[in-house]
Design goal:
heterodimer; A: alpha+beta; Glycosyltransferase; 2 domains; 5-stranded antiparallel β-sheet; 17 helices; globular; B: 5-stranded mixed β-sheet; 4 helices; SCP2 domain-containing protein (chain B); SCP2_sterol-bd_dom_sf (chain B); SCP2_sterol-bd_dom (chain B); GDE_N_bis (chain A)
Chain lengths: ~675, ~120
């Protein structure tokens, strides 16, 4: 992952990761570059003045799509007395544009050799953290009078980087240069344009009929302003709540991704910078978190996932009829089927969650047309649950990868290799079934029954789904309950043996409604109890389990998104105080990250570290971390659509003061919600 | 003559309606090349209703591929979107039509499907 001092700007899936000087010199440990379509189009971009590298005085990433670097020639020293200053300003808007300004502060005139070294390794995003030694295709370079063309060709697969300078330049195979003369106090400016091309036979653009739009700064600015204006306003007595909300909204804007086939509509990508693509699970969960604030994202997400729903069996991509995709990629390794993401279907939760999102979206928006439009896709998704996911024949969703080379072992959200274990720490055989996915399946059936009855005019199907859901709930409460612990097992092995460890997944079970009401209290107490609740959030795995490690990715770290669904679940079962406790923890943690919650942070007890310890390789901003504060606001304010109206039932901790959310969009038009902190959490905890 | 290709289009024509295209309307032309020779197939889709002809008429999108590749696509031995990313299959016009129609290509003849744990699990 990119270290913190790297500067990242992006527009959709086109982005630049550079050093703080603006330079790019990619290595496996510092995978900087200019990327588009999951391909690195610049692996070197180094500016020199009279042969000298530059040092930064400061830089600003002004907006997510632009950055500015203030530089002086020569190495960094304690005392800088430069006679020259250099300003690099760059904007990403489809292509990459850099404006260069050089100012002479000297009382004498100067002659300068300005040079930009440029190279492209056309690495696939899957390759950037490795030494790239033997690309299977061939590289080419074309030096033209007014541009430099860097290219890569493998069969009909062709990618090109086209670099052109506004001021006349001398182009060579390794970059371009200018010789300039500056009088005292004179300045020189240049604009450099770097375009990408993805070409098929006959020079046809892969991005097909779509215009590869070059969006200039004013258009990007207007787009962001409109995005912010359309979302509700949050005012809070304590600034950090509204600041976190605003940070989240801006990051969500940055994370919008427009798939090739969708003509400009956007859905949330998973994370910046390495996961700027569609993920079934991440996109759906982010939509569920953000529905009260940015409902349009849900409509697009549902439509695109429906369009790419599985229709056949494909063992390499793990596609089945009705299955919702896991991840889509566009790079060379995918094109040549060295990786399966075209798209890859190896997740078992995206399919039931697709049904859940459609219902939740309708309840907020009142949009019946979309529920009717996606009826067949919903039915196919529900059929997948029963016909293709029940590998053991016991009425649950199981997974076992068919792609044993490049497929995922664990096809649930905790997808690292060691995330699912028995209490003694050993790993169970496959197929495996994890608890939260059974909850999602239950919820999908209950919600689909409502849609069938109210909108699909199929009460018989609704009855059938409700019977199935009730049977699943009964079965689940029999097979998964760990009686001596008072919680549900994380997973079952194929012989029905429990992985009887205490994990955050039980919070998702509350959210889905599969928990028997007489067991909810015990589950709720675990979620706010010492073993799971760190003071900042809910640990993925409880302290005391064999594999517990406060910085174990899925074995102890706190994931803000995960905690936000736990809070929603607590609220659903009436545990408003408990929900407020963990919501408060995450919103407090956000203050240490300037409102931008990372993917995960350490599960250390709050009183021990006093601040949340960021997980070492966390990706940031990440969509479902960005969505977490929004879902927590919804949860604490008790926002709930109810028969076309918005119900508000706030339960805030005392210290949180007053919060107002204005212009919440939905079936009702726009509505405001007001809340004041009244809960004394110390009495509870 | 590319037999599987002909069967693919004739089958669509016989069915007359394809539920996977229920939300799709438009005209998609297939230009299938074999050296200097090009075979044309025209798919007129009206919310799932399909008419097939072999004419070089105007369309909302044109899909270009070699006859050999297309034969493999319609028998599940090649993958449409991967071929598109590779540049072996190209599209002019509205890409959405192609993404929709690509869903109609069949499973690989070698696909095993879900790995059921024991006989009778399903």
């Amino acid at each position: 992952m990119a270290p913190r001092h790297n500067v990242r700007i992006l527009d959709g899936s086109t982005f630049v990761v550079s050093e703080t000087t603006g330079d790019i010199e990619a290595t496996p440990s510092e995978p900087t570059g200019f990327f588009s379509l999951d391909t690195r189009f610049l692996s070197k971009w180094v500016l020199t003045v009279n042969g000298e590298r530059l040092t930064e005085l400061s830089y600003d990433d002004l907006q997510y799509y632009e950055a500015r670097f203030f530089l002086v020639p020569g190495p960094a020293t304690h005392y800088i007395d430069a006679k020259l200053s250099i300003i690099r300003e760059r904007v990403i808007g489809g292509s990459f544009r850099e404006c260069l300004t050089i100012l002479n502060h000297d009382e004498k005139a100067v002659d300068l050799e300005i040079r930009m070294d440029a190279a492209a390794d056309f690495a696939d995003l899957f390759e950037v953290k490795d030494e790239i030694l033997n690309k299977k295709g061939e590289f080419y370079t074309e030096v033209e009078p007014d541009r430099l063309r860097l290219g890569y060709r493998r069969g009909n697969f062709r990618r090109e980087t086209i670099i052109s300078s506004l001021e006349p330049a001398r182009y060579d195979r390794n970059g371009f240069a200018h010789t300039i003369h500056l009088e005292p106090n004179e300045q020189w400016q240049n604009a450099i344009d770097v375009r990408t091309a993805a070409l098929g036979p006959g020079g046809r653009e892969l991005r097909m009929g779509l215009r590869v739009q070059r969006r200039e700064r004013p258009a990007l600015q207007a787009d962001l302003a409109e995005w912010l204006a359309n979302a509700p306003t949050v005012n809070s007595e304590h600034d950090h709540i509204s600041a976190t909300y605003r940070r989240s909204l801006i990051d969500l804007a940055a994370l919008r991704f427009s798939p090739l086939s969708l003509g400009g509509q956007t859905l949330p990508a998973a994370g910046l910078p390495w996961f700027m693509t569609m993920f079934g699970r991440d996109s759906i969960l982010t939509c569920l978190q953000t529905l009260p604030f940015t409902p349009d994202l849900s409509m697009t997400t549902l439509r695109i996932l429906a369009a790419l729903q599985g229709t056949r069996f494909d063992d390499f991509r793990e596609e089945d009829p009705g299955r919702i995709l896991h991840e889509m990629r566009y790079g060379e390794t995918v094109a040549f089927e060295e990786q399966p993401h075209s798209p890859y279907y190896g997740s078992v939760d995206a399919t039931p969650l697709f049904v859940v999102l459609l219902d939740e979206y309708q309840r907020w928006s009142g949009d019946v047309a979309l529920v009717k439009e996606l009826e067949q896709e919903c039915r196919r998704a529900l059929r997948w649950i029963d016909e293709y996911a029940d590998l053991v024949g016991t009425g649950y969703i199981w997974y076992q990868r068919r792609n044993t080379e490049t497929g995922l072992d664990n096809q649930c959200w905790k997808d690292s290799w060691d995330s699912i274990s028995y209490a003694d720490g050993t790993l169970p055989p496959f197929p495996r079934a994890t608890c939260e996915v059974q909850g999602y399946a239950y919820d999908a059936k209950v919600r689909a029954a409502r849609m069938a009855r109210e909108f699909w005019d199929d009460p018989a199907y609704a009855d059938e789904l409700e019977r199935e859901a009730a049977a699943l709930k009964e079965r689940f409460n029999r097979d998964w309950w760990v009686a001596d612990g008072g919680y549900y097992a994380l997973a079952l092995d194929p012989d029905g043996r429990q992985c009887d460890i205490l994990s955050s997944n039980i919070g998702h079970l509350l959210w889905s409604g599969i928990v028997d009401s007489d067991r909810a209290e015990q589950v709720a107490q675990h979620l706010v109890g010492e073993r799971l609740f760190s003071g900042w959030g809910v640990r993925t795995l409880a302290e005391g389990e064999v594999r517990y490690n406060p910085i174990g990715y899925h074995n102890g770290a706190v994931w803000p998104f995960d905690t936000s669904f736990c809070a929603w679940g607590l609220r659903r079962y009436g545990f408003a105080e408990e929900a407020a406790i963990i919501a408060n923890g995450i919103l407090d943690a956000a203050r240490y990250f300037d409102g931008r919650l990372p993917e995960a942070f350490g599960g250390y007890p709050r009183e021990l570290t006093k601040f949340p310890v960021e997980y070492p390789t966390a990706c940031s901003p990440q969509a479902w971390s960005t969505g977490a504060p929004l879902l927590l606001l919804r949860t604490m304010l008790g926002l709930e659509p109810h028969e076309g109206h918005l119900a508000v039932e706030p339960r805030l901790p005392v210290g949180m003061g007053r919060i107002e959310v204005l212009d919440i969009p939905g079936h009702w038009g726009r509505m405001d919600a007001f809340a004041r902190g009244r809960l004394d959490l110390h009495k509870l905890a | 003559m590319a037999d599987a290709t002909t069967r693919f289009f004739e089958d669509l024509d016989h069915r007359g309606y394809e539920p996977l295209l229920a939300k799709t309307s438009g005209v998609l032309r297939f230009d299938l090349h074999d050296g200097p020779q090009t075979t044309h197939w025209l798919l007129r889709i009206d919310r799932g209703d399909i008419r097939v002809s072999q004419e070089e008429a105007e369309s909302d999108a044109v899909l270009h591929a070699s006859q050999d590749l297309f034969e493999k696509l319609v028998t599940g031995r090649e993958h449409g979107l991967a071929a598109l990313l590779r540049g072996d299959l190209t599209v002019t016009g509205n890409p959405r039509l192609v993404v929709r129609v690509e869903r109609l290509f069949p499973s690989s003849p070698h696909a095993r499907g879900p790995l059921y744990y024991r006989e009778g699990a399903r």
